Hydrolase
Amino acid sequence: MSLYGDYDPKNIFAKILSGDIPCAKVYEDARILSFMDAFPQAKGHTLVIPKVSARNLFDIRCEDLQNLIAHTQKIGRAVRSALEPDGIRIAQFNGEAAGQTVFHIHFHIIPAWDDAAPRAHASGQMADMAELKDLASRIKAKL
Ligand code: 5GP
């Protein structure tokens, strides 16, 4: 039933937005926050979230979704320049059955390399914060 229902203001991304949980920040403006995924599927796994209380693609206003995907493209380009991967996967899940684990809409930017298989989604392997901050600053430098 996680595809339906009300927005939970205590979800992890809401806490990141309020500054209660730290993140390795890549980009921020009045409507968008982007930061490194703490349990990355690959080096440079970056998340892009809007500053609106929407659980998924079906809850968010069209105008906010357009702004979110435009920023995903912009930040994805910076990931591409900074890390020069062979490919980049853009992912977005709606509802637990589809793989969503944090119920605040977001896009994943997941670099891919020919010689490295990605880790499974939500594998639970936490990355080192110093490494994430280093990656974030390399991506930020290309924005
Ligand atoms: P979803 O499964 O909802 O599509 O994606 C949620 C993402 O958030 C997962 O890739 C997961 O690794 C990431 N994540 C979960 N908790 C945290 C956290 O506390 N900080 C950061 N930066 N990422 C998180």
